[in-house]
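Complex 332.
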Amino acid sequence: MTRFTRIAGLGHYLPPRVVTNHDLEQLMDTSDAWIQERSGIRERHFAADDVGCTDLAVEAARAALADAGWKPEDVQFVIFATLSPDLYFPGNGVLLQHKLGLGEVGAMDIRNQCTGFVYGFAMADGVIRMGTCDRVLVIGSELQSPALRLTTEGRDTAVLFGDGAGAACLEVCDGSASRVLGHRMHSNGKYALELTIQRPGAANRPWISNEMIEDGSCGIHMNGREVFRHAITKFPAVILEVLADHGVKPADLALVVPHQANERITEAVRKRLDLPDERVYSNIGRYGNTTAASIPIALSEAVTEGKVKRGDLVCLASFGSGFTWAASLLRY
Ligand code: UT7
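Predicted structure with oxa(dethia)-CoA bound:
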């Protein structure tokens, strides 16, 4: 049998605390109108102080395992995408392996920010297709609220990001009904500093200092206009590339699940592909930008809402820090 990969189960988790734009108005000089008009975001979820990124991931992973009908011992490999790990090292993959009570299986982290889940999805597909494993758990989870500067100085990024987690159980199949078709991945490190947290970093001496904390270099820096400018061209380009690889036209897609960075970016992608609103998924209004978690959360919701059915063609696509951009095409 030729080996292919299918999604066996999906799950997602948002921490219960909802923070609205009006809540942020109390903390900084911003407005609900500005945030909604520029980004489409109305509210986001922030985790409680005693919750870590892997705690969110555990909830999403348990939901995905239940959806797939897997027990923890069925998982043979873990791929964890995040930019907000619990520890500088080791990565979240091993922490999740332990918290979920998995066997002593391989576990790794992907540090690709907004495209982390798509890159992880592609790696899992490779691991399954080459015969190394039959069942892989891929997670995107982010706990971004602790790094946000919830003040007027930090408002350019603080209003955009949220916490959450999504997970997918991928398993080997014969490809006759469902299967992952392929992937395209790109990067251009020339733009690495346009969206970054630069400190602490091992290229710097000293590794960390009080000055770095005070001058804001331990916080998120984003050149929003530059990111936006690239996103609206690279996003549709990488989608069209992966579709062309498989002879698929945009109109054949049941759903595009784009990374949720900005409603205006999603709208630009939709227009470029000439698709109706209901075929490009959007939940940014409720969750903000949850970075590596946004695609698995959106895909899990879309399936729950009946927007994707078995056999439908679905495209996952993302653009973000790095810059990196990537897309995956699958028959769900
Ligand atoms: O997932 C990672 C990928 N990230 C992205 O894709 C983000 C891409 N970029 C964007 O989504 C948009 O650039 C933003 C939503 C970040 C910003 O929208 P914009 O239309 O590009 O606004 P801007 O940065 O040009 O700022 C416009 C004005 C500025 O004031 P002046 O200089 O015109 O007086 C900002 O200081 O808005 C001001 N501003 C704010 N005002 C109220 C910036 N942040 C805020 C805020 N509330 N939170």
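The mean pLDDT is 97.
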